[in-house]
Amino acid sequence: MQIVKNMMLVTVSHIKYMQFASGTQVDFKTAARNSAKYSMGSICMGSIFIPVLGVIRGSARGVNLVSGDADEFMCSANCCSGVALKLVAYGNRWGFVQVGVYSKGIVRASTDTWEMFRRLGMEKLINSDLTSSFCFLSGVAAGSICALVGGSWALLIHKTYATEVSLYTFLIGYFMSRVAMAWVQASIAAYYVAYAENPQSQQFDSTIPDYIREIERSQVQNSQELVRTAHVESML
């Protein structure tokens, strides 16, 4: 199911990328056939190690949040952040766009895509993107509903199998929802990549630059607030 989801991600991102980049319409069957013919190896590889890299990156961000300014955690937090930033450049879901468009390998596509984001200063925007979290929570919600319905039916009909039925229906509902939500994830990823390749294109407005400036402004305000708080505490 992970491979099916990423197959949908590559296919749809190819279609959306062509729309954003040049206004060209690509047939879904053609894009799906090209993805299956030229990119299946990269899709399978990405389906295996990109979730692992995502867990490592999420753990690193969690360590940073927990550590705060504590000196005893600063070293481990910096180490985790450095490792996570290195790994995300070699495997990320935005690389699937170039896998579909250019038939690149997943590692090369990921590194090329991340380098474009870094060159345009889009890393902060990418890191604050909540698309993946929204899709994950939607999958959990759909899986929970399926588990509730399936478990209730099993309790009435086959009580001894209620646990197994609930587990299987949760997994089915979760993955089916993730496959359906791949359309949204692919569209947003294609928009980011198409903008990063040609930010001066007439196809784009000022949405991304405005968000980047807003994020930078918010970070400056937070830094100033921390400085004022530290100054007040030192005075006390």
Kindly describe this structure.
- It comes from Sesamum indicum (Oriental sesame).
- The chain is built from ten helices and no strands.
- The protein is mostly helical and 236 residues long.
- The protein has one domain (2-210).
- The chain is globular and about 65 Å long.
- 30% of the residues are buried.
Quick synopsis:
By secondary structure, the protein is an all-alpha fold. Helix content is 84%, strand content 0%.
Defining key terms:
10 helices, membrane, single chain, transmembrane helix, 0% strand, Choline_transptr-like, mainly alpha, 236 residues, Choline transporter-like protein, transmembrane
Would you spell out the secondary-structure blueprint of this structure?
Layout (H helix, E strand, L loop, with lengths): L1 H21 L5 H11 L1 H28 L3 H20 L4 H8 L3 H14 L3 H5 L3 H27 L4 H36 L9 H29 L1
Keywords: Membrane, Transmembrane, Transmembrane helix
Subcellular location: Cell membrane; Membrane
InterPro entries: Choline_transptr-like
